[in-house]
Every structure is written in structure tokens, then in C-alpha cells.
Amino acid sequence: MFTQFFGHFLLEKKILTSEQLLLALTEQTNARIKLGTLAIHAGLMTANEVERVIILQTKQDQRFGEIAVAKGYLTSDQVNDLIERQSPEYLVLGQILVEQNIITHAQFEQLLSEYQTENELFELDMLDEQKDKVLLLIKNFCKLDNLKQQDLLSDYILLLFNNLIRFIGDDFTPLTVLSLAEYPTTSATCQEITGTFALKTILDGNKETMIQFASRYAKDSFQTYDEFVEASVDEFFNLHNGLFLVNISNSKGIELDLLPPTRHDNELITIGSQSFVIPIM
After folding, report:
1. Number of C-beta neighbours around residue 1 at 10 A
2. Does residue 122 have a pLDDT over 60?
3. Which of 143, 156, 192, 224 has the largest count of CB atoms under 10 Å?
């Protein structure tokens, strides 16, 4: 989850293009986190020290940790701790950008510090604390402060991103949130949640995007936009919204109802004043 928002952070800083980000997100699945990246994140080594060790590795047949210990940058215990410690997933994205020469280790060190400071991301070892950090990240990102029932909205968006990762893939990043009173659809599924927390939700994209989306969800290979694609997208959205209702019932004791999904292709939908659109790349 933090990887997706880190990608948006880098786009906002104009560090890389959307094409470069998508390529890096695609490659992160097979990437292995390196000791130098972990050391920078933990504040045990500077970017310059990591660079020196990498240069020495080209001249010596030794591992990064062995050289770092010999140079006095790390102790053996610190090396073992870095290897065993669970590290934030967004470090892999930064490491790939360094390897692709899009940013330097020094830039990565600075960007990492800025990203963590802006979003108060420190010591995410506890699962509950990590969830709280993600919810804070979502509230800040979507600017939910002036909206009613912002806690429920944050829960909804968090579940949406988690379900995208779970069922579609983690190679995406949310873009800047838009506030719109009307929304022109392309190939859209719409579903309404009714009750004490009423919410109109829309999942939309161009036909090529929906073909790829449905293919991933159904674990099939759709080639054309047809009723099977629409049914797969509808099924994902209905599942997501259904899970939200179950979660809210179990965690907060709020009982809501869900209307069947409807199709809205090439229509102008009036949403209302308290509404927003989250573009996802």
C-alpha cells in the first residue's frame, strides 16, 4: 500500500514520468531488496557510504555486508538485523529507480526522508499501527477533512486499494484526487450503498483498460470488450462493496444495504457536491 502512495509522491515531485513509474512497478515483483537500501532506510549508512561499498564490490569478490563491516560502516549484528527485519515494501520501488539510473542513492535517501516525514511513516512493525498509518495517509491524500463520515470513507478507500492489490495486482498508483459534481463515464459500473452511510460508487475506465482489468480478475485472457468483461468487472465491484458492508457490520455494528450494480456507458452522471474521483494509473 505504501508503495502505491510513494509512487504518487514521486510523480508529484516530478522525479519521474508515469511511464517510468509503471515500468518500475511492474519490475518490483521480481526484485529483491538489497542490504544497502535497508541500511539507508534504517539510518545506519549514508548514501555516500553505500556508493563506496558498491564501488568496492566491483573490485573485490565480497558481499556488501562483508565490506560494510570491514570498513566499519556496520557491525555483524546490524547486518543480521537488517536481513531479518521486515522492511517497508516501498523501498523496493526506490531501489529499482536507483538501478535504472532515474535517481541516485543520495536522492533516494532525501526522498525517503521527505516521504516518511510528510506521512509520519516510522516504525511500522505492528499491524494495527500500520493500518492506522495507511488510514492517515488516505485521509491526507484524499483531503477528507471536510467530508461527512470521513472515517467510513477512509475505510472504504483502504479496502478498495487492498482489493485492487489482492485481485488485480500491485502495479498501480493513485493520482491526484479530483472534486467533480458531474462525472462523464466511459465504460462504468455503478453501485449504491444505502442506509445511515449512503454512498454512490463508480468504477470506470476505457474499454482497453476494462479488458485488462477483467482478464486479471477472472484469470482469463479477454481480447474484446463484451458481456464477459462487463460481468467480470461487475463481479469485482459487487464483491468489493459486499466485503465493505460485512467489515462495517462486524467492526462498527452498522448495517447497510447494497443495490445491484448497473451499467452506465458514455453517460454524464450527477454525483453531488460531496464527491471525488480517484484516478488510478
Report:
1. 20
2. no
3. 156
H or E segment at 204?
strand 199-205
Phi, psi angles (nearest 5°) of residue 95: -60, -40
35-51 pLDDT tens trace = 999 999 888 999 999 99
Instruction: Identify whether the C-beta of residue 100 lies closer than 8 Å to the C-beta of residue 20.
Output: yes
CA 62 vs. chain centroid, Å, equals: 35
Residue 126 confidence (pLDDT): 37
- What's the confidence (pLDDT) of residue 130? 63
Place of cell 489482492: 166
Measured in degrees and rounded to the nearest 5, phi and psi for residue 144 equal: -90, 0
The 8 Å CB, 24+ separation contacts for 132-141 are 134/1, 134/2, 134/158, 137/1, 137/2, 137/5, 141/5, 141/8, 141/174, 141/177
All cell numbers assigned to 219:
484469470
Whole-structure pTM value: 0.73
- Taking 3-state DSSP, the helix, strand and coil percentages for the chain, each rounded to the nearest 5, stand at 55, 10, 35
| C-alpha span between 49 and 68 (Å, rounded) | 8
**What cell was used for 12?**
508529484
